[in-house]
Amino acid sequence: MLDPTRAAVLALAVTLAACAVPADADVEPSRSEDDLVVSRCCSSVQPGALPIVRFDGHASYTLTTPAGDIADVHYPTDRLGRFFQRLGVRHPVVVLLQGAQTDKAAYAGFAGLVAEHGFVVVVPNHFRAFPPGAPASLFTEQGVIADGLAAAVAESRRASSPLEARIDETRLAVVGHSFGGVAAILGVAGTCAPPFCTPGTYTRPAALRAAVVFGTNYTDGEPRAALPVDTSAAPIAMVQGTVDGRSLPSLGALTYAELEAPKAYVELEGVNHFGITDTVAPPGAVPDANASTVPQEEAVARAATWTSLFLRATVSNDPIARAYVRSAGSFDGTVKVQSTP
C-alpha cells in the first residue's frame, strides 16, 4: 500500500506537472482541477520561477487551551481536504507567540496565509502579571508552545472537531513576534529564562522542529551585544523589516550571528515592526515610530510567504521551499535572504 504522505506528495507532484510555468509568466494564480492553487511568478506570494503549491483557502475557529488561554486556530481548506484526510495525511502544528500587548486577532491575516501552506496555526491570547504584581495583560511565555500543541492534539482526537484526525503530533514549529520571538528562541534552546518563562513551567517539546521569529533580537548591555543561546536543537529563521524602529535590524543581525546552523535571515524591504499584523498599529501595542513604506497587506503577505517557505523546508522537508530558503530572495529584490545550511 502506498504510504499516505507519499500519496499526498504524488498528488501534489501531478498538480505541479500540470501547472508549472515559465519565469516570465503572469502573476495571476492558476487553479488546477483538484482546486489546489499554484501561484505564478513573480508576486509576493510566488517570489520566483519555481511553483509553490498551497491550499486555496483557510478557515478558523476559537477554542480554550488546556492551560485556559483563548486561542484562534487557523487551518487549510479546499475540496481535497476530505480526500487527504482519508489518506491519513496530517498537518504540522505552528504555535504563534504574540508580541507584547498584541491581541491574537491582529495575526489573523498572517496565520491564515501560513495555514494555506499546509499548517494548523494556533494563536493563543496569553494573559499574565508582568511585571509581577501588575494587572494581568497580554504577555506570552515559553509554556504557551507546549500548551498550543496540546490544544491541537486534543482537537485532532475529538470526534466532530474541524481538526479531527488532521494533526501530525510529531511535527511542531513556533513563530514568535517581538517579545514572543525571544520566547520562541529560548523555547528552542530549552532554557526557562524570565521574563520569557515562568520558572519550572517549560520543557522543550520533542516535536519541536523549527522556529521563525519576526522583529526580534536577543541582546543586552551598552553597547548592545548578543546574549549567548544554544539553538542547535532546531533551525531558526529571523524575519526582519528593514525600517523596524523597535527591534533594530542591526540588533537582529547580532542575534543571527549567535544562532546555530541551519538558520536563515530574511530582510523585508520597507517593512517596520508590525509587518506581521493586520494593522500597522495594533490596539494596546507600543507603536513603531518608523512608518512602513509597504502597504500592510503586502508586508503581511511577504512575511507569511517566507515564514511558510522556511517551515516547509525544515518541518515538511519540501525541496522547492528549501531551494527558496537557499536562494538570494525574491526576483524583485524586495526580499533578501541569507542562509547557512
Name the features.
single chain, 341 residues, alpha/beta, Rossmann fold, 3-stranded antiparallel beta sheet, 24% strand, disordered N terminus
Estimated radius of gyration:
19 Å
Averaged pLDDT: 88
CATH topology annotation? Rossmann fold
Largest beta-sheet details: 9 strands, mixed
In the CATH hierarchy, the architecture is 3-Layer(aba) Sandwich
Report the end-to-end length measured between terminal Cα atoms.
Answer: 34 Å
The class by helix and strand makeup works out as alpha/beta
Give the arrangement of secondary structure elements.
Layout: H1 4-19, E1 30-31, E2 37-39, E3 52-54, E4 57-64, E5 70-77, H2 81-87, E6 91-97, H3 108-115, E7 120-125, E8 127-129, E9 136-138, H4 143-157, E10 167-177, H5 179-189, E11 208-214, E12 219-220, E13 225-226, E14 236-241, H6 249-258, E15 263-268, H7 296-314, H8 319-325, E16 335-340
Parallel strand pairs: 6-7, 6-10, 10-11, 11-14, 14-15
Antiparallel strand pairs: 1-2, 2-3, 4-5, 5-7, 8-9, 12-13, 15-16
